[in-house]
Amino acid sequence: AAQLALASANPGDPAAPSLRDLHWSAARCHLALGQIESGIASLREAMANGPAGSTDAPPALHIELAEAYNRAGRHGQALQTYRAALAAATPSDGAPTPDEIPLLCGLARTAALSGDRTLALDVGWRALSLLPDQPPQLARAELLADLAGYQLADGQTEAAAATRLQALETLQAAVRAELQSSNAKVQTSNFKPARAASLFARFAEEAGSLGPASSPLDLLRAAVALTPDDPALNRALGHALARASVQNRADYRAARAASV
Which residues contact 138 (CB under 8 A, 6 or more apart)? Predict the structure, then answer.
């Protein structure tokens, strides 16, 4: 459908979608179908077809192109795309802007994929410095979790465990704040239950480094409470419950044998 719209596009019609939007829509169709290289080609066309022939593009378009490059394993081009977007988003006085945060996060992830752990950590901490401590934010928890992964890959085991625990505490605080806002009928726009649930599930897989206060079972219960209709999370919780039951029976038998 997007390709048909491109073929019949009328640039002179003010009510018609722009060429950039049409190429962008075509790219998303290609990427959803797993046609990565076609998606990259359409995204590059979208970059080149701005209003009045401009090649300036919004940060979201840079991010989608960079992540498409990452999906294709072309991390060097992804790094270049993120760096170009950051240069365009940073004002001449160097003052931070909201657009920088997702670009820095993407650059850090891409650096980690390319094996440059030093760059991943430097850029990740810079992004974190732009996010406020309060109120607790899901984005801050996600970034802290990423930073813990970069630290672990860099051999900083103890620092990674501390950062991951800080990420979990930030996530739990963000969920509590959202529940309080919901009870008070206050609308919040930056909390995404599915993203929070996904992060809880991620922590469940890494629970061994979070200490005894955070069991995989409890973390998965928290994930399912946020997205009760998610079949994958429900299956994961079911498996965790089954493992816990087997372990409880084994512990019971061991305790009885020891008491004899």
Answer: 171, 174, 190, 191, 192, 195, 196, 199
Closest-CA residue to 220 (of 210, 231, 234): 234
Say whether pTM exceeds 0.90. no
Written as six digits, the tokens of 12 are 């002179």
d(CA 210, CA 213): 8
What is the identity of the amino acid at 238? G
* Nearest CA among 222, 227, 220, 221 for reference residue 205: 220
Is 166 in a helix, a strand, or coil? helix
Q: Which residues contact 99 (CB under 8 A, 6 or more apart)?
A: 59, 89
Report the share of the chain in percent with pLDDT over 70: 80
Q: State yes or no: cis peptide before 135, omega within 30 of 0.
A: yes
CB 198 within 8 A of CB 224: no
Instruction: For residue 108, give the amino acid letter.
Output: A
Alpha carbons within 13 angstroms on the beta-carbon side of residue 169 total 11
Q: Are 178 and 188 in contact (CB under 8 A)?
A: yes
pLDDT in tens, 164-223: 999 999 999 989 888 877 665 445 556 788 999 999 998 888 766 655 556 888 888 989
